[in-house]
Amino acid sequence: MPALSDLRRGARGVISGYADSSTEYRAKLLSMGLTPGTEFSIVRYAPMGDPIEIEVRGYRLSLRRAEASVVEVNE
Hints:
Layout: E1 12-18, H1 23-31, E2 39-45, E3 52-56, E4 59-63, H2 65-68, E5 71-74
Antiparallel strand pairs: 1-2, 1-5, 2-3, 3-4
């Protein structure tokens, strides 16, 4: 299953869960609205590739690549 950090600009998908090693970030990401079943789209990447800006639940959110790599998605 791909991670959010693997997607290209403009890609759309649905959050399916979190990697097993993501216990540090899970509560933080859930509190930001990144719950399973939530649709999102990749808006842009910063020039050096970090952070990633996504649109989710009507707002834009920037995530570090390490945080985005633990979010499992379906395209």
